[in-house]
Amino acid sequence: MKKNLPSLQIADLTINPPIIQGGMGVRVSRSRLAAAVANEGCVGVIASVGLGKFEDESGSEFESINKEALRVEIRKAKSMSKGIIGINAMVALSNYESLVRTAVDENIDLIISGAGLPLELPKFVEKKNIKLIPIVSSARALKIICNKWKRNFDKLPDAVIVEGPKAGGHIGYDFQDVVEEKASLLDKIIIEVLEFAGSFDPAIPVIAAGGVYNGKDIAYFLKLGASGVQMGTRFVCTDECDVHESFKRAYLSAKKEDLVIIKSPVGMPGRVIKSKFVEDIQKGKTKPIACNYQCLKTCDPDTAPYCIAKALANAAEGNLDEGFVFAGSNAYRCNEIVPVKKLIDELVSETEKYI
């Protein structure tokens, strides 16, 4: 059945259906989800951010707790699947290098890296055959990465994920542009990136992300020239998603108007589902923090209105009154929780219909 779709080829990895499950943190996409997705021929991705119960520990333990938690999740995923397993590592994290090196030690198949330009990523991988995939929101960003990697490491990205403004979580666009819907649409950015990515021999595969919801969307981007898609939102509403049931139910009960953009202490806009906590943020009511760990390079605990790490950890554990749920612009369209296999079979048959 899946043979009818074109494969996503990333160096010597063949991915069919051509779908990457987006890395979703904190503790949303872990080993169980990643393994289930990989078992269907797609790429399963563990979000490396905040996997350890860091909020209960002293700041000095932050790096080691999260490093070991990532190691455990990678090993679990590999024990449950012979498919392709990757991690997502945010450049903005203060323990970014530690997480990347841990994934390299565990012989992860690929590393996806965004929330900043991963200019030093090849340095941490050495000579291992691990695919490196930056996330960008413009052709300009990809050019900067390619120039830097080529000059310093004689390396080019094995693929590139182009994330549009409809993505969930942190979005690499100007806050006002996202709120007023002035940011360039994904298809326009994809076309620009394809032109540059195609100038290499072999061409760098381009993967569309941000607002990709169903098979019709997948077919659209494949016909546009993308080699595959990355999807996050749909995988939250699966049996195997590692997050608390209350988090999943927030998707099922969300209406379109409940999806709002907030200013994150990371310095980026973030798309979330409205909650009491979100309303407090929007009203300027701060949630005082005593930060022990400085998990984000760009966060100043003295001026941050709230601790995003704790807010996301709270939500992942089901405490939605003290946190918020990241979600893509189509989260309100989710109406049931299904097994990963059923979701992917449905996406494949829809894609075939439109391709």
Distance between the termini: 14 Å
- Main beta sheet: 8 strands, parallel
State the share of residues found in helices, binned by percent: 25-40%
Classified in CATH, the superfamily of the largest domain is: Aldolase class I
Q: What is the correct CATH architecture of the largest domain?
A: Alpha-Beta Barrel
Indicate the radius of gyration in whole angstroms: 19 Å
Q: Please indicate the percent range of residues in DSSP E strands (runs of 2 or more).
A: 15-25%
Instruction: Determine the mean pLDDT.
Output: 93
Q: Stretches where pLDDT falls below 50 for ≥5 residues?
A: none
Tally of distinct domains = 2
Main CATH class of the largest domain: Alpha Beta
Strand order of the largest sheet: 3-11-10-8-7-6-5-4
Total helix count? 12
Structural classification: alpha/beta
Would you list the SSEs in sequence order as H and E?
A: EEEHEHEHEEHEEHHEHEHHEEHHEH
The CATH topology annotation of the largest domain reads as: TIM Barrel
Q: How would the global form be characterised?
A: globular
Question: Would you count the extended β strands for me?
Answer: 14
